[in-house]
Amino acid sequence: MLDREGYRPNVGIILVNHKNEVFWGKRIREKSWQFPQGGIKYGENPTQAMYRELYEELGLRSEHVQILGRTRNWLRYNVPENFVRRESRGHYKGQKQIWFLLKLLGKDKDISLRATNHPEFDAWRWSRYWVQLDQVIEFKRDVYVEALKELSTLLFPVKQETRFLRKRRHKQNKSAERDVVIQQQHLVLADDESVVQQHQLLVQISDKS
């Protein structure tokens, strides 16, 4: 089910424990980690879809969690073409998501990654709310930051979020600076090669003379 712009309606779940640590699941047979998420089926509203995905992926029922909040608007990310099934290319762009912040009322033992015959994760862990997202697949990272930022105000003072985002921007700036240096080095090498070629040409002309 796609909207007119080619985005599939979806829900994402940020689950925290009593320490405000966040649940991360490792995608089955992969190295990437992510939050629980899944598509909204025809006839479902986002809350109904969230509870269904919560059970399918984590084995948790509504009585195990408390809804602390949700994002006000849809958050979108585009899926690179090489991740899209061939028959869907051309009209499928990506996902649009409503994100929920949930507090776990139950215990860790209530979490089951094998609640259905089609598990999404093969391992899980609790992590600090603000962590680097290097192990999240790249095209989802910006949406993760948006969701974490918007919902963090329900848990933390603004200073924690600001400090994390400042570090992330600093890391991005450093990466951009490295790219510029590499480009400059390539230009210098190209100039050096041009000088060498010009020198060789002059030598050849001199020899012919």
Automatic annotation (TrEMBL):
UniProt keyword annotation of Magnesium present: no
* MF-aspect GO terms: pyrophosphatase activity
Any idea where the Nudix hydrolase domain is? Answer: 6-149
**Sequence motif Nudix box, residues:** 38-59
Q: Which domain of life is it from?
A: Bacteria
UniProt keyword list: Hydrolase
Enzyme's top EC category = hydrolase
Q: Which InterPro entries match?
A: Nudix_hydrolase (IPR020476), NUDIX_hydrolase-like_dom_sf (IPR015797), NUDIX_hydrolase_CS (IPR020084), NUDIX_hydrolase_dom (IPR000086), RppH (IPR022927)
Q: What EC number is given for this enzyme? A: 3.6.1.-
Q: Which cofactor does it need?
A: Mg(2+); Mn(2+); a divalent metal cation
Protein's job:
Accelerates the degradation of transcripts by removing pyrophosphate from the 5'-end of triphosphorylated RNA, leading to a more labile monophosphorylated state that can stimulate subsequent ribonuclease cleavage.
NCBIfam families according to UniProt: PRK00714.1-2, PRK00714.1-4, PRK00714.1-5
Family (UniProt): Belongs to the Nudix hydrolase family. RppH subfamily.
The molecule here is called RNA pyrophosphohydrolase
Organism taxonomic ancestry: Bacteria, Pseudomonadati, Pseudomonadota, Betaproteobacteria, Burkholderiales
Q: Which gene encodes it?
A: rppH
